[in-house]
Design brief:
- About 85% of the residues lie in helices and about 0% in strands.
- It is globular, with a radius of gyration of 21 Å.
- It is built from 16 helices and no strands.
Length: about 450
């Protein structure tokens, strides 16, 4: 007998795009926007420590992006396999796919997080940061890395819920974790009574504690709802093939995300030639831009769940049509975000800093990216959709080269030709637009429309 969650998920197959927006995309958007507030809360309290502390947080945030990208290895693969299995009505494959992704993530956590814990300060020094900024970035990152050992499995659990069409449960748990973070951040950063202030280390510790608690809660609920059964774990040939398939689907997107984040290490190196102000600006504006970006990811998650289930049910052309309908809804939302950036940039940035130079630079950066917000949404939507239908390699070969080109193009215009910091902002925005257009074309005309689903391939072998 199918679990009730699976029955609810199958109803996505017959929902209109508008209903998917209401039932799946908006709760997912709320969830990812709540996740953004973790960074915003950190930035708000760390900003009270000064511009150097904010620059430290901005530099450390590059590594948090990289780690979230690495985490997408099992997350993307899990979502693709589980959503297609749900669409095909194969509950056992859905549960075993979650187990395979969890096993993969535990191994990745050990391999990636352990060496980074010991090498982070050397990497920060190589970025030509001042000693104070480099030390602050390392102080923040160390406790954060410890929390990621539990958050990696939590990312898989979140993907499993999303693939079943349940974006509400992760959002509620994340809201609880966010509330706790708002309490712990000032307590750990500034201290209270006999409790000493820990500064940037305290900010990282508060985030780590809350995200670890979120992950444990999500895994418990996942098991109680029957969406995973740890008693089914057997590391046999079939499970090894499943782990390999999860990794194969997730690896291109994980690499793309890791390259995307790593590129900012080089961009920070370029920006640091112009002082601390543009480095601090980058961190603040990215936190504000996340308000739009995670709305994109929220809609992308709903699109991935819908596309995966429809492809699993062998309804490929319907998947293509409905993803474009979702994209229309997302584009309308991002148009409003663009207007907000253009009209309210200065007061938004002033929340995080009273440095007039940072505010002025931030307004300029926001004005540039506001012109391309809609295409940023296309990038997120079609990358998620391509991954869900099993074409993550195609998404990689379109997006990654354009991401890597940000380094030489930024250097050429900002430093070699002397156009300065604005050239970096324009390069970031322009490459985003090209990725959005390229990925939309790949989804519309890709070969995935003629191939059997991953679920069908696994079932036939």
């Amino acid at each position: 007998m199918s679990h009730p969650a699976a029955k609810r998920a199958s109803s996505l197959l017959d929902l209109s795009a508008a209903r998917v927006v209401w039932l799946v995309a908006l709760p997912a958007t709320a969830s990812f926007m709540l996740n953004t507030f973790f960074n915003l809360i950190d930035a708000y309290f760390v900003g009270q420590l000064g511009t150097d502390a904010m620059a430290s947080l901005s530099s450390a945030s590059i590594f948090t992006w990289i780690l979230y990208s690495v985490g997408s290895l099992g997350q993307i693969g899990c979502q693709a396999l589980v959503s297609q299995a749900v669409g095909a009505g194969d509950d056992r494959l859905a549960r075993r796919s979650v187990l395979a992704a969890l096993a993969l993530h535990l191994g990745v956590a050990v391999i990636v997080l352990t060496p980074l814990f010991f090498l982070d300060r050397a990497i920060f020094d190589a970025m030509s940061l001042t000693p104070e900024v480099a030390q602050g970035a390392s102080d923040y990152l160390h406790p954060f890395l410890a929390g990621m050992f539990l958050y990696f499995p939590g990312m898989v659990a979140m993907a499993a819920f999303h693939a079943h069409g349940d974006t509400r449960t992760p959002a509620l748990l994340l809201a609880a974790a966010l509330g706790l973070n708002a309490i712990l951040d000032p307590l750990f950063i500034f201290g209270l009574g006999p409790l000493p202030g820990l500064g940037l280390f305290g900010a990282g510790l508060a985030t780590a504690v809350c995200k670890a608690g979120f992950s444990l809660g999500l895994l418990v609920i996942l098991r109680r709802r029957g969406l995973v059964d740890f008693g089914e774990w057997r590391f046999d040939r079939a499970m090894a093939r499943l782990v390999q398939k999860v990794a194969a689907v997730g690896l291109p997107i994980a690499l793309n995300g890791a390259f995307f984040s790593s590129v900012y290490l080089a961009l920070i190196r370029i920006l640091s030639d112009f002082g601390t102000v543009p480095v601090a600006t980058l961190g603040i504006v990215h936190r504000l831009e996340n308000l739009g970006w995670f709305a994109c990811v929220g809609f992308g998650v709903s699109g991935a769940a819908l596309a995966g289930q429809l492809v699993g049910a062998a309804r490929h052309e319907e998947a293509r049509r409905k993803i474009w309908q979702l994209t229309g809804w997302l584009s309308a939302l991002l148009f409003a975000v663009s207007l907000i950036f253009l009209t309210l940039g200065a007061p938004m940035i002033a929340v995080f800093t009273d440095d007039p130079a940072v505010v002025a630079e931030g307004v300029r950066y926001l004005s540039i990216i506001a012109l391309f917000e809609i295409l940023m949404g296309w990038e997120a939507m079609f990358e998620e959709a391509l991954s869900a239908v099993g074409s993550s390699k195609l998404a990689f070969f379109v997006a990654t080269p354009l991401t890597l080109l940000r380094i030489p193009v930024s250097w050429f215009f900002a430093i070699h030709l002397g156009f300065g910091v604005p050239a970096v902002w324009w390069t970031i925005a322009g490459s985003t637009a090209l990725k959005g257009i390229g990925l939309s074309l790949c989804f519309s005309f890709g070969r995935w429309r003629k191939r059997a689903s991953i679920a069908a391939q696994m079932a036939s072998t």
